[in-house]
Input
Amino acid sequence: MKPFKFSLESVLNLRSREEDAAKDSYAEAVAFYNRTLLALEAGLGDLEVLQDTLSSKRQGTSKKDDQLVYLQAIRQQRSFCDTLTQRLVRVDQLQKVRFDLWMEARKKTQMLDKLKAHHKERYTLEAARQEEKAVDDLVSARWVAARYDADASIAEELEAKFGGVGDFGASREIEFTF
Output
């Protein structure tokens, strides 16, 4: 029997490629989220260092201009952290959207995979049924052939014994006609 061929194999391949692209896109979004989160944590750490430095400058003897420089640096760092926080929120939303797209593509691929498995199972069962039928036909043919040869030898013995009395050949043909 010829090998199994899924008629929607090209569609399954296309959906698999789409799923891989969606998975890669999601992975990029996760990586960008992680980079943004690390940058935000680093920025918050720098902001904390600046605030600690400013508080130590205020307690010690420092000029008012030095404190203003640190205040300006703290404002800039807060602005940077706010920007990163907003970016992190957008990236989180992007990550969720890309995850949903990946799951949708995965669902389509799984649906075709299940359909392919179902068709292959039916094909395998049909092939097994046809093979069993072929074996049954072969066994039946051998049995008929063996029976026919046995009847022919008995008919020959009877013809030889009784001198051609009776029509054994005709009954044999009628008996095994399908």
